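Re: that chain you flagged

S.,

Sorry for the slow reply, it's been a week of failed gels. I finally had a moment to sit down with the sequence you sent. For the record, here it is as I used it:
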Amino acid sequence: MFARFLPLAAAVLIAGCDQAPSEMTLENAWVRLPAVDGRPGAAYFTLTGSDEQMVLVAADSEAAGRAELHESMAGDGGMMRMEPIAQVVLAPAQRIAFEPGGRHVMLFDIAPGIEPGDTVPLTLSFADATMLSVDARAVAPGDPAPQPAAE
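Prediction finished late last night. Pasting the structure tokens below so you have them in one place:
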């Protein structure tokens, strides 16, 4: 009886070998420009993991003097507070949204010539030296967040 299932098991194993490993993706990136010159802006995006656990450890932008990973959370008395975070662990195939009111990248000293509609380069660095880069769309302080592209 076992011999009848051997060809089926072999076919399943061989089919699995043909699949390429999934790659990490960085999508729907945008930057909220500051309402007041000299104040920081914030970058938002969706990050989807690959077949392996990855650890996001830093962000950078040529359009900013400094970039930091941050997270907003409810503090004492229901007031929102924001803190820098050292890393974000991305489990295999996990999808993490960096969005207003949650995780985001603070961009300090944004270049003064950046206007709504421009693109802002953003690079994410991971613990294993992997880097992902994207051009994020700049959005004015009072404008709504851009809608993700239809999938």
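What I noticed first: The first strand starts at residue 25 and ends at 32.

Talk soon,
D.
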